[in-house]
Design a protein that fits this description.
It is built from 9 helices and 3 strands, in the order ααααβββααααα. The protein has 233 residues and is mainly α.
């Protein structure tokens, strides 16, 4: 397996782990609903997997859009010798733009969804800012199907350049493997966190990393591209 493909797989695993661990919405809603609804372990695992697969499906669809773009680039006459380097540069460019967007979003403290377990035993979702200055104007009761909808509508953006790269190099066999690795890592991490919470472990420290999730994802993409371009990965 070429070194750059190995780097791509390591990047996919890293992004899946970071994206899940730094996003409490990937596991806390299932823990709260499980406890408030007296769910069985089987039901808790089942809803976690269903919502996780919905989240991954939307991420993969975005990524396949990137793969289609990479395929188009690979068919341009005269780029055969350049397409590997071009794909790596495109990966770097996406990472830099994604990082700038993430830093801007963090600086502006834009509202984002937040889950809250209320005293009535229900789980609610509302818009939230990290400075704590803004109070939610509206909040909505969360059910398992609401979580599923939120997961489907909230894909993982870094999947786009990860699938662009092998398509641009015409290494199509990498795409299903990359999707499978990302899927397994995401689901295993989600299930692990949900099970830890199900048996009583808290995640207060990890919740503090939520605001840096996009920055960490962008940094991982940039590191991958830098390794491919200049470090011989």
């Amino acid at each position: 397996m070429p070194p750059e493909i190995q780097t791509l797989f390591i990047t996919a695993i890293t992004i899946a782990l970071l994206h899940t661990l730094t996003g409490p919405d990937h596991y806390l809603p299932f823990i709260v609903l499980s406890k408030s609804g007296n769910w069985s372990l089987g039901k808790t695992i089942g809803w976690t997997l269903v919502c996780g697969l919905g989240h991954i499906a939307s991420s993969v669809l975005l990524g396949l859009g990137g793969a289609a773009l990479g395929w188009s680039v690979s068919r341009i006459s005269g780029l055969e010798a350049l397409r590997g380097g071009l794909a790596a540069w495109a990966l770097l460019g996406f990472g830099v733009l994604y990082l700038l967007w993430a830093l801007y979003r963090q600086y502006r403290n834009r509202p984002h969804k937040h889950f809250d377990a209320a005293q009535d035993g229900n789980l609610y979702v509302y818009e939230h800012q990290h400075d704590g200055a803004s109070m939610p104007q509206q909040r909505f009761k969360v059910t398992p199907w609401v979580i599923f909808l939120i997961f489907v509508l909230g894909p993982c953006e870094p999947m786009i350049p990860l699938l662009f790269f092998p398509a641009a190099k015409n290494t199509w066999w990498v795409l299903p493997l990359l999707i499978a690795v990302y899927t397994i890592c995401t689901l295993v991490t989600m299930l692990g966190m949900v099970l830890l919470g199900y048996y009583g472990l808290g995640f207060s420290r990890l919740k503090r990393l939520e605001r840096y999730a996009h920055v960490l994802g962008a940094a991982t993409i940039i590191l991958c591209a830098v390794g491919m371009l200049w470090l011989g990965w």
